[in-house]
TrEMBL record:
Keywords assigned by UniProt, alphabetized: DNA-binding, Transcription, Transcription regulation
SMART domains named among the record's database cross-references: HTH_ARAC
Domain HTH araC/xylS-type intervals: 162-259
Statement: the UniProt record of this protein carries the keyword Phosphoprotein: no
Pfam family, one: HTH_18
Protein name as it appears in the record: Helix-turn-helix transcriptional regulator
Highest taxon above the source species: Bacteria
Length: 261
C-alpha cells in the first residue's frame, strides 16, 4: 500500500470519448484528500463502504454508503474520503445522458452498482457497437431514473456565511444561538436570519441540523458509535441525536446502515 498517492493521478477520464467508464478506488491505498480539480466528463461518485464528502458549487455534499453524488462536467470540485472508503466512480461524457446540470445526490439501486462494477473490467476505449457500450447505455438509462436525496449543505460565497460555516464544520458541537452568531458577525439577529435564507435557502436552525446530519452520516459510515457521534455534535443525549437523525432521513441510524449492508 502507498497512502501518499493522489487519486487524480491514477486516471484521466477525459482521455476517452466513450459514453461512460468506471473505476473502483479503495482509500486505504490513496490520500484521503482529493484536491480541487475539474474534467470534461461528468462524474458520479458512489460510496460502497465508508463515505466521502465533496465540495462543489459553494455546497458540501456527503456520499454515505450506496448513495452517489453527481458532479456535472466542468465543475471544479474536491473531496475527502473516510479512512475506510471504498468508492466506485462513473465518468460520463457530456450529452451521453439527460442528467442534471447542477450537483445532486442520488439513491443508487443494486442494479446500477453491479453494472458499474462490471464496467470497471472493460477497456477505456471500447467500440461503440461493443458489449461494453451496451452495458454503459443500460447503466445511464437506469441512472437518469434514480430518485434524488437531500445530502447537501449550501454554504454560499458570502464572507459572513463562510466564516460561520467553517467554524461550525470544524466545531459542530458549538451551540451558539442565531443571536450570538449575529453579534460575532456584527449583524442584527434579523439581518443574519434574512441573510441565511437568502444565501442558503434554509433557516439557521434547519441549516445547522443539515450540517449535523452530514457530519453524523460521515462519522457513522467510518465506524464511529452513535454515542461518540452524538457527543461530537454536542447533543445532550443519544436519544436527542437519534430523534434528529430519524426526522431527517426517516429511520434510526442503526436501521439506516443495516439496510445498506
Amino acid at each position: 500500500m502507498n497512502a501518499s498517492r493522489d487519486v487524480t493521478s491514477l486516471f484521466d477520464p477525459d482521455s476517452t470519448r466513450c459514453a461512460a467508464v468506471a473505476r473502483l478506488l479503495d482509500f486505504t491505498e490513496y490520500e484521503a484528500e482529493v484536491p480541487v480539480h475539474t474534467h470534461r466528463k461528468g462524474q458520479l461518485i458512489l460510496a460502497l463502504y465508508g463515505a466521502v464528502t465533496c465540495r462543489a458549487e459553494n455546497e458540501i455534499w456527503i456520499v454515505p454508503p450506496h448513495c452517489g453524488v453527481w458532479i456535472p462536467g466542468g465543475i471544479a470540485h474536491s473531496a475527502r474520503a473516510t479512512w475506510n472508503a471504498h468508492l466506485s466512480y462513473l465518468f460520463i461524457e457530456p450529452g451521453a445522458a439527460t442528467l442534471p446540470e447542477q450537483c445532486c445526490t442520488f439513491a443508487v439501486s443494486p442494479l446500477i452498482r453491479e453494472l458499474m462494477n462490471r464496467l470497471v473490467r472493460e477497456d477505456n476505449d471500447y467500440p461503440p457497437d461493443s458489449h461494453a457500450a451496451r452495458l454503459a447505455r443500460v447503466t445511464l438509462d437506469e441512472l437518469v431514473n434514480m430518485p434524488r436525496q437531500n445530502f447537501n449543505l449550501p454554504v454560499s460565497a458570502h464572507s459572513k456565511i463562510q466564516v460561520m460555516a467553517e467554524t461550525l464544520v470544524s466545531h459542530p458541537q458549538d451551540r451558539s444561538t442565531l443571536n450570538e452568531w449575529a453579534r460575532r458577525l456584527a449583524l442584527s439577529e434579523r439581518s443574519l436570519a434574512r441573510l441565511m435564507v437568502r444565501e442558503t435557502g434554509l433557516s439557521f436552525g434547519r441549516w445547522r441540523q443539515q450540517l449535523h446530519l452530514i457530519i453524523a452520516l460521515r462519522g457513522l459510515a467510518s465506524g464511529e458509535s452513535v454515542q461518540n457521534v452524538a457527543h461530537e455534535l454536542g447533543y445532550e443525549s443519544v436519544n436527542a441525536f437519534i430523534t434528529m437523525f430519524k426526522k431527517s432521513v426517516g429511520c434510526t441510524p442503526a436501521l439506516y446502515f443495516s439496510e445498506r449492508k
